[in-house]
Amino acid sequence: MEIGRHIDRLESVTDLREVVDICADLLTDWDIDAELTWSTGDEPHPRNGDDLLLLQTPDGHRSLLLRPHPDRPLDALAQSRLQWLGRHVERRLDRAEEMAHLRRTNQQLQDSESLLKALYAIAELSNSRRSLAELMAEMHAIIGRLIYAENIYFVVCDPDQPRVRYAYYVDALDPVLPDPEEWVELAAIEGSLTWHLLHGGRPMMGTVEDIESQLSAPLRPIGTLCSHWLGVPLLREGVVVGGLALQSYGEMRFREADRDLAVYVAQHLQPVLERHQTRAMLERRVIERTTALQEANAILRQQVLQRQRGEQLQAALFRIAELANLSDSLENIYPAIHRVIGGLLYARNFYIALLDQQEQILTFPYAVDEYASYHPARPHAYGLTESILKSGKARLFSRAQIEQMQEAGEIVYEGAIPLSWLGVPLASEHGVIGVLAVKSYRPEHSYDTRDQDLLTFVSYHIVNALQRKDSADSLRRAYANLEQRVTERTHALAMANRDLRLQIVERERIEQRLKHEALHDSLTGLPNRTFMLQRLEQALYRYRQDHDKMFAVLFVDLDRFKVINDSVGHLVGDDLLLQVGGRLRSGLKASDVVARLGGDEFAVLVEDIGGQRVAVDIAERLIDSLRTPFHLDGKEVFTSASIGIALPTPHYTRPEELLRDADTAMYRAKHEGKQRAAVFDERLRQEAMSLLDLENDLRRALARNEFVPVYQPLVNLQSGEIVGYEALLRWQHPERGLLLPRDFLQVAGENGTAEPIDWQIFEKVFADAAELTRCGRYVSINVSASNFLSPDLDKVLLALIAQYQIDTRSLRIEVTEGTLLENPPQVKQILDSLRQHGLVIALDDFGTGYSSLSYLQRYPISTLKIDGTFIAELTESGDQQNLSIIQAILAMARTLHMDVVAECIETEEQHRILQQLGCGYGQGFLFSRAQPLEHWLALDAAAAEAAGAIAASD
Question: What is the DSSP letter of 195?
Answer without folding.
Answer: H
